[in-house]
Amino acid sequence: MKLKWVVLTIGLLGAVNSGLAIANQGSGGAPAMPIYRCMVENEQGKVTESWVPLHICQQKGGKSVI
């Protein structure tokens, strides 16, 4: 009876681990997209630089440097 529990427990742990491994594959969210240097000028004339996808730069009103 004790051997049965050991085998069952090992089998259950193996199933959980393989399930987690499958869930972790490709778990980066959206697929990779190109990142651009984005320059945004505020009201005081100060320019800030950030590295973001092109559509985020456009939403901020910045200019991308390719």
Structural commentary:
It is a single chain. By secondary structure, the protein is of the alpha+beta class. The chain has one domain. It is built from two helices and three strands, in the order αββαβ. It has helices at 2-24, 54-60, and strands at residues 35-41, 47-53, 63-65. A three-stranded antiparallel beta sheet has the order 2-1-3. A hairpin with a 5-residue loop joins strand 1 (35-41) and strand 2. Residues 15-21 have low confidence and may be disordered.
Quick synopsis:
The protein has two helices and three strands. The chain has helices spanning 2-24, 54-60, and strands at 35-41, 47-53, 63-65. Strands 2-1-3 form a three-stranded antiparallel β-sheet.
List keywords for this structure.
alpha+beta; 3-stranded antiparallel beta sheet; 3 strands
Percent strand equals 25-35%
End-to-end Cα distance = 68 Å
Question: In angstroms, what is the radius of gyration?
Answer: 25 Å
Helix share, percent:
40-55%
Enumerate the strands of the largest sheet in spatial order, edge to edge or round the barrel: 2-1-3
Number of helices: 2
Low-confidence stretches: 15-21
By DSSP, the count of extended strands is: 3
Order of helices and strands: HEEHE
Signal peptide: 1-23
Keywords: Signal
Strand and helix map with partners:
Layout: H1 2-24, E1 35-41, E2 47-53, H2 54-60, E3 63-65
Antiparallel strand pairs: 1-2, 1-3
